Amino acid sequence: MDPAAFPNLDPDLVDLVLSLPDMGGALDDVPAARAMLEGLIPDGTPYGEDELVITDEIAPGSPDVAVRVYRPRCAGPGPLPALLQIHGGGFCLGSVDLEHAGAASLARRLGVIVVSVEYRLAPEHPHPAPVEDCYTALQYVATLDGVDTDRIAVHGTSAGGALAAAVALMTRDRGGPQLCFQSLNIPVLDDRMDTTSMREFVETPLWSRPQAAKSWEYYLGGGQADQYAAPARATDLAGLPPAYVVTCELDPLRDEGLTYAMRLLAAGVSTEVHNLPGTFHGSTMVPTAPVVKRMDAELITVLRRALGVSAS
Asked: Three-state secondary structure along 32-88?
């Protein structure tokens, strides 16, 4: 791609953009896209994994849901906060294995129990299967030994942000486990795709309108979106847990994230919102870029505060 097409692009992200092919048809062949992503899983174990006890478990439900649980080995006395981690991937890609290093890093750096959920993927399993799996995982988190049920949060990125927001709505409406916080990172929220950023960003790096349209097609499977598929459709946001919403300037999802954050505030939900200048969907592929380091540091700071844990 030509970085000159994006005058506001952060200079530290230029090399990545130069190396990117046209991704407009990336979701046309889902099996190939899944195989490509699985091939990116690094060999070996993530840094600091020896500081954790990691187990693959089953959250009982209809159907049962596979989860991976990360527990700090050297936890202090008393129950620990817990974080339900929901991976992204346009509702049709991604896995616990792909999310492994990130989930392990959060558990280690925060000193909390992290539960990563292997939800079913579209198009084979359209809405509501993925969000129901995530809700089942949340219910399981609340039953785990050593979890402080007053300090359970949910964190999701991209499509995982949609599922995290939906789980927050669902547990409020069903009277399920209480969440103390929701972290929505570059979230997918609105199937109507009628924001300024969604209309304008048709050729942005890594994620643009064509992929967004295809992912919604797979996820809805010909059905109509409700608030648990597209949280932007929720008419009542009152009573939801405090939120942290992160958007990227050059992301078609930018405006739906900002709008949702403003609506949360209007509904009386304490909300922190950051729009990162010069970034795009997937900027974290350059972890050494100062703006990406800032995104990471701020997430850790916010989650520590929300979960009531101190810096180690």
From this structure: HHHHHHHCCCCCCCCCCHHHEEEEEEEECCCCCEEEEEEEECCCCCCCEEEEEEECC
Please give the sequence-ordered ranges of beta strands (E in DSSP) within the chain, or none if there are none.
52-59, 65-72, 80-86, 113-117, 147-157, 181-185, 243-248, 271-276
CB atoms within 10 A of CB 39: 7
Q: Which residues of 205-237 are buried (b: 16+ CB within 10 A; e: fewer)?
A: bbbbbbbbebbbbbbbeeeebbbbbbbbebeeb
Q: CA gyration radius for the chain? A: 18
Q: Which of 10, 133, 190, 251 is catalytic?
A: 251
**How far is residue 178's CA from residue 165's CA, in Å, rounded to a whole number?**
14
Whether the predicted model's global pTM rises above the 0.85 cut: yes
In order of their start, the domains of the chain are 3-307 (3.40.50.1820)
Longest dimension (CA), the chain: 54
Pick the catalytic residue from 105, 158, 197, 215.
158
Tally the C-alpha atoms within 13 A of residue 47's C-alpha that lie toward its C-beta: 3
Chain segment 131-189, per-residue pLDDT in tens = 999 999 999 999 999 999 999 999 999 999 999 999 999 999 999 999 999 999 999 99
- Does residue 63 have a cis peptide bond before it, meaning omega lies within 30 degrees of 0? yes
Tell me the per-residue pLDDT of 57-72, one tens digit each, with 9 for 90 and over: 999 999 999 999 999 9
87, 125, 127, 281: which is the annotated catalytic residue?
281
Half-sphere exposure of 267 (CA within 13 A, CB side): 18
Instruction: Report which of 242, 311, 307 is spatially closest to residue 79, judged by C-alpha positions.
Output: 307
**Under DSSP, is residue 271 helix (H, G, I), strand (E, B) or coil?**
strand
Q: How many residues does the chain have?
A: 312
> Catalytic annotation on 251?
yes
CA–CA gap between residue 112 and residue 266 (Å, rounded) = 31
CA distance 5 to 20: 13
**Pairwise CA distance, residues 51 & 92, whole Å:** 32
